[in-house]
Amino acid sequence: MKLLIANGYLIDPTQGINAGKSLLIEDGRVVGTMSHSDPVPEDAILFDATGLIVAPGFIDLHVHLREPGQEYKETIATGAAAAVAGGWTSICAMPNTDPINDNAAVTRFIVEQAARAGLANVFPIGAITKGSRGEELAEMGEMREAGIVAVSDDGRPVPSAGMMRRAMEYARGFDLPVVDHCEDRSLAAGGVMHEGVWSLRLGLRGIPALAEELDAWRDCALAELTGARVHIAHVSTRGAIEAVRRAKERGATVTCEVTPHHFTLTDEAVDGYDTNTKMNPPLRSRDHLEAVLEGLRDGTVDAIATDHAPHHADEKALEFDRAPFGITGLETAIGLAFDRLVHRGDISLERLVDLCATNPARIFGLEGRGTLRAGAWGDVTVLDPTLRWTFEARRSRSKSRNTPFDGWTFQGAAVATIVAGRVLYVHPSAEGRLRPAAPAYDVG
Questions:
Q1: How far is CA 44 from CA 6, 38, 117, 279, 437, in A?
Q2: Do 340 and 381 lie in a common domain?
C-alpha cells in the first residue's frame, strides 16, 4: 500500500528538514520526500496535509498499560487506542503489571497482545529486579531477547545504591538504559502531595522535593561511575533538573523526561482534595514548575512523557489519603504541550518534535523510529497547531477517566496518527483530507 502525505510542512530534526514537503510511504516504510508539485503516485492513498505539520511518529517513553493483571483499569488494546487518538505512534510499557514483567514470558505476552491489537507500537520495559523488590537482579538478557527496550522498577525505586550500581553494570552489558523513578522512600513515606505551604494548609502529609533529588544525584553519580545509560523518569524538582544538567556537563550518559502535568499544574491544584490531582511525583510548587520550564528551554530535559496511569473510578473516589497515585495522559499531552509550551514561546515546533519523537527514539535505541529518513518505519504524527478543541474524559479511548484536564480547551492537537503507513486515527476536523477513505482509520 502507498500513502502520500501531501502539501504539508515537514519537520524532521534528524535530517535538518523544516520545510514544505510531501512524504511517500510504501509497504510500511518511508520511501522519501517529494516536492508539492510532483504528481501523486499511481494507486496511492492521499492525505492532504495543507496547513499542517508532518512529524516523525511521537513516542511516549512512560506508560502504564495494566495488562496483565489489572485489565479493569486498562488493557494493552485500550491503552494503544488512547495513544493513537492522542497522536502517539509508539508507547513504552512500564513493568508494574501483575505479574510484574520481570521475565521473558511476560514480555512475550505483552508483545503478542500489542501485535493482536494492531494499533500503536508497544515496547515493553522490563523490571530491574525480580518482583521489583530491589533484592535480586532480573534476567535482563532473556527479556532483551523477548523484546524489552529498557529496565525499570518504576514506582518501586531501587533503594540500595549498591544494587543500583550492579543493575547499571549488568544493563550496560545488554545495551539497555536504566530508567529510575527517583524517590527516597525513607523521606517520602506516608506523603500524598508535595511538602510545602499547600500541604500545611490542607493538612496532608507531604513528600519533600529532597526525596526525589537525593536519588537523582545518586543515579547521576552512578551513571558516571559505571558508564551506563541512565534515564531519570518524570523529573519534577529544581534539584533533580540540576543533577541531570551537571551530569550532562560532566559527560555522563544521563537523560530525563518531564510530564505535561508537571509543566502545567502546581500543588495549589490540590486545593479541593480532587484525587485526580494526586500523582507521584506530586504536583510541585511554582518554583519547581519554573525549573522544569527552564530545563525544557535550555535542553536539559530530553523528552516529554505522559506517565499515563489509569485507575478505576471507584479507586479514585476514595479519600485523598487513600486514593492511588496517577492520572491518564495519552490524549491530553500534545494539547498541553502546544498550549502551555509552544504557543507561550517556551519551545519551538522543532523542539517539540525533538522532545516527543527524535530524542525518545535515541534514548531507548528504537531503530527506524523518530525519523522520516528513507527506509525508516512509516510512523507519522500530523499536527494542527491552530486547532481549538476541548477534551471530554467521557469520550476517552482509555478504560479509565482519572484526569484533572476534563473539560479543558487547548489550541493545538495531533489530527492524524499513522503507524507503518496505516492511517489509524483522524480527528474529525481532518476527516475530509483522506482520499479515498482507508478502511483502517478511525475518525475521533
A1: 11, 13, 25, 45, 12
A2: no
**What burial letters (b/e) apply to 204-217, b meaning 16+ CB within 10 Å?**
bebbbbebbbbbbb
Q: How far apart are CA 381 and CA 88, in angstroms?
A: 7
- Going by C-alpha positions, the residue among 278, 364, 290, 358 that lies closest to residue 62 is 364
Return the pLDDT at 385.
98
Question: Where residue 423 sits, what CATH number does that domain have?
Answer: 2.30.40.10
The predicted pLDDT at position 437 comes to 59
Instruction: State how far the Cα of 192 lies from the Cα of 266, in Å rounded to an integer.
Output: 14
Q: Say yes or no: 225 and 85 in one domain.
A: yes
Q: What is the rounded distance in angstroms from the CA atom of residue 102 to the CA atom of residue 316?
A: 28
Among the listed ranges 10-14, 39-43, 55-59, 121-125, which one has the minimum average pLDDT value? 39-43
Q: How far apart are CA 33 and CA 374, in angstroms?
A: 8
Instruction: Record the cell numbers describing residue 131, joined without a space.
Output: 518482583
Q: Running DSSP on this structure, what letter comes out for residue 292?
A: H
User: Is-above-0.90 flag for pTM?
Assistant: yes
Q: What is the DSSP letter of 371?
A: -
Instruction: Give φ, ψ of 33 to 5 degrees.
Output: -95, 160
Q: Which residue numbers are catalytic?
A: 307
Packed helices 238-249 and 209-226: angle between N→C axes, nearest 10 degrees = 10
Same domain, residue pair 386 and 418: yes
Q: What angle do CA 298, 301, 307 make, to 5 degrees?
A: 150
CA distance 353 to 59: 10
In the chain, how many domains are there?
Answer: 2
**Cell triple for 253:** 550518559
Alpha helices in 174-229 (DSSP H): 185-188, 197-202, 209-226
pLDDT tens-place string over residues 60-89 = 999 999 999 999 999 999 999 999 999 999
pLDDT tens string 352-401: 999 999 999 999 999 999 999 999 999 999 999 999 999 999 999 999 99
Residue 95 has pLDDT above 90, yes or no: yes
Helices (H) and strands (E) in the chain, counts: 13, 19
Residue 18: φ, ψ to 5°: -150, 75
In this structure, what CATH number is given to the domain that contains residue 199?
3.20.20.140
Residues 97, 161 within the same domain: yes
Does the pLDDT at position 439 exceed 70?
no
**Whole-number Å distance between alpha carbons of 316 and 339:** 27
Q: What is the pLDDT of residues 31-58, one digit of tens each?
A: 999 999 998 898 999 999 999 999 999 9
